[in-house]
UniProtKB/TrEMBL annotation:
Protein name: Cys-tRNA(Pro)/Cys-tRNA(Cys) deacylase
TM segment ranges: none
Domain (YbaK/aminoacyl-tRNA synthetase-associated): residue spans on this chain: 30-143
Sequence similarity: Belongs to the prolyl-tRNA editing family. YbaK/EbsC subfamily.
Amino acid sequence: MSKTNAVRLLESRKILFELKEYEVDESDLSAASVAAKTGLDADQIFKTLVLRGQSGELFVCVIPGPCELDLKKAAKAGGFKKVELIHVKEILPLTGYIRGGCSPIGMKKHYPTFVDETCLLFETIYVSAGVRGLQLQIAPGTLLEAAEAETADLI
């Protein structure tokens, strides 16, 4: 397995994490699918979403996989009046990651990052390690530090 930007960054900072591989189904990249294949709790599998504020600034929201992002709450967290998700074709050029493999750690450029406050309910959570088929298990506080993120009410 080749190392992703997220894994390289965590290793270089000597941050504790574990990796969990799973078989990818290109037709279903949902957290429920990942949970079924890995035996993990879907509520602990967080997805990374990239958004654009009304003036063009980008930011990142990380929420539990089964949940929907509340755009009003995301806008408030980012300090915007209105936000929208970026288009799928923009994910790779802006982050260096592909849809279904976007990690909040190690993007091409650092964007303000907000992790839903429910992450603090768990000892560890899972986020993409930077490729489809590989999840990164990490303590929420460690993720916040590694991603230079803060918690927010996003769902």
